[in-house]
Structures are given as structure tokens and as C-alpha cells.
Amino acid sequence: MTRTRLLGLLLASTVLGTAASAQEVTLTIESWRNDDLTIWQEKLIPAFEAANPGIKVQFTPSAPAEYNAALNSKLDAGSAGDLITCRPFDASLALYDKGQLADLTSLAAMANFSDVAKSAWQTDDGAATFCVPMASVIHGFIYNKDAFDALGIAVPTTNEEFYAALDKIKADGTYIPMAMGTNDQWEAATMGYNNIGPNYWKGEEGRLALIKGEQKLTDEAWVAPFRELAKWKDYLGDGFEAQTYPDSQNLFTLGRAAIYPAGSWEISGFNTQAQFKMGAFPPPVPNAGDECYISDHTDIGLGMNAKSANPDEAKTFLEWVGSPEFATLYANALPGFFSLNSTPVTMEDPLAQEFVSWREKCKPTIRSTYQILSRGTPNLENETWNASANVIKGTETPEDAGKRLQDGLASWYEPQKAK
What we know:
D-Maltodextrin-Binding Protein, domain 2; globular; about 45% helix; 2 domains; ten-stranded mixed sheet; alpha/beta
């Protein structure tokens, strides 16, 4: 081979190699979910890359408590990744308003999601959607099947049946009827008030009416759930006032409590820790024949950095995140974090399948305090934590709690101010 020809071949191979590497793009995902790093690395990213040669993906999470500050710093400095994992409502809306998240309304995959699913990542008027919905968490009650079987208790569907079950468990004395404390306050609101409440304020109907100023927190629909919480005191066991969230988890998984007011995110941990059979039931309805509602709360989405150097490839990835394929992979890899895709996903985990099956018979809604109503001071979300804990402990009446929350909201939120 002549020296000239050899140089020509070397030059050609260099050009080809450079062209090939130029075509390959690496996308970076920012996230606070560092607990599911291996799921992205071993299941989700390989599935995408296999179908999309030339696009590589890196999942680079931060510690959950540090994510917001770290992400804001990166975005301000222009060093953030192409894809941004989105918290629901105001934190992500603020990024969109600053021009840091791109408008994704025109993505074809957005057609795969309901208005409720998209509501956590939209402008207040719903005109722009800036994150693809990924998953929600569903509220209800997880119970010890062995305990129910031993005591001959059927799964309750109404309040009357619910309290009859609690009374039977309490009378037997083997188990604490229900594992929940009030020390950390948020559980009382999240797994208490916003768990059972939608059956009273009729889910989205009441939530949206509150935002519009057409209902008040002193209305019967909003006070009634507090009246139910006040009854829980007798079933939570001694010292519940000082009981923390991890204490409650341990009481249930060690088999010392029969019922756990729950969020579906508990499923994976409980599956690992509990040595007994578990089941789940949705919030009991006030009366037989009533329509049922569930808190199917939007939890996590994925958006695009408006300054991404790879917008076309990032949108290709987001279209895939909005697909039924991703929905099935993600929901089964993380049982308890349910796909928001309109295409039903069959869950491999039986407890997760029980939770998600409620979507077929109950109307979904999101936590009442999360959209718009907690932007001012006093913060309605945090005040609801405190009020729910107080009502359970008996230090504040349901009526007083409703009035305090209403007065606080009306002090800064225009639609609720007295006309």
C-alpha cells in the first residue's frame, strides 16, 4: 500500500468517526429521585436507547432535600441538564414562568393524559403544559389480611362498616386498630383529611369550587371530613400524639397494628418489611350507594430545559416518556407510583394492582391544597396539617378548624375574600 493511499484511508476513517460521534447526542436528566437510579440505568434508559440509536441518556439525580436549590443554581448558571424532573404545581410553574422550562403543549404524547393528570404542570389557565406527567400516588388504607381473617372482618366499604371493623379490632385487643400519629402533622392531613375528604367535597367538583370562591372551608363538605378525623382518636393507640411517621410504619410492618392510612408509595417498603399478607381498600363512602372518590395525586413529571442544546432529541425522549411502553415499564419498576397515562397499565404487584383498580370505579382528584391555594400566608397546606392533627388530638373542634382555615385563606386569596 502506498503512503499516499494509507494517509487517505486514515483521513477517511477519522472523518467517518468524527461524523458518527457528531451524530450521537447525550441527554442528561436532573431528578430528586436518587432512590430509583438503578431502575433508570437498568430498565428505562436501555429500553429507550435500543429504540433510538444515536441518543444516549444519563440520569444524574441530586439528594431530594437539595434538588430545588441545586436545580435553580444550575438553571441560572446555564449548566442544567436537558431534561428536568418536575415537582407538581408551583415549584415547576415558577421555572416555566422564568422561561427555564419549555412549553410542551404541542407534544403528540400529551393527548395520552387527562386534564387532571396534566393539571400539576400547567399554567393556571391551562393554556400551556410544561412537563409530561409521569406518575401519581393513590391514597387509601392498607390492612393486615391475617388480622382481618383471624377476627372475621370483611373489607369495609362504608363508614358504618369501617367503624364496626375498628371497634372489633379494639375490643379484641391483639392489634392497635389503626397506625397513625400526629407528631409530624403532615400525615394527619395527607393520609387523613385529603384521603377521606374527596368523598365529601366530591373530588374535583369541590376542589375547583374552592379555587373559584364558590365554596368555603366552613361549608359542610369541608368540615365533615374533620368530624370523621375526630373519631379516629379512639383507635390510634396509646401515645399517638408523640408517634412519628417512621413509628407508624414500624407499628404496621411489625404486625402490631391492623390498618394503616396510606399513600401507595409505601408498597415497596411494606412488601420488604411486612411478614404478613396485606390488602388495601379505598376510603369508605359515607353511605351505601354513594359515589366514591380517590386522591390520585399527581407526583412527578418530566420537562425540558428551555436552553437545552439538544431540543429535538429531548422531545424524542419526552414523547417516549408519554407512551404506553414507558408507562408499563415505570409503574411496574416502582410499584405504588402509578402511571398517569390514559392507557391502563396492568400491575405485576398485587397490592399495587388493588390500588390502581380503584380508578375503574372511583373518580380521581388531587390534594385540595396543592394548586393555587397555598401560595399565600398563611399557607393552606401547612395550616391543614396543623388543623388535622389538632382535630384528631381533640385540641380543636372540626368547626373551629374549618373557620381558622377559611379565615386564613380569605385573608390573602381574592376569590375567597368577603364581598
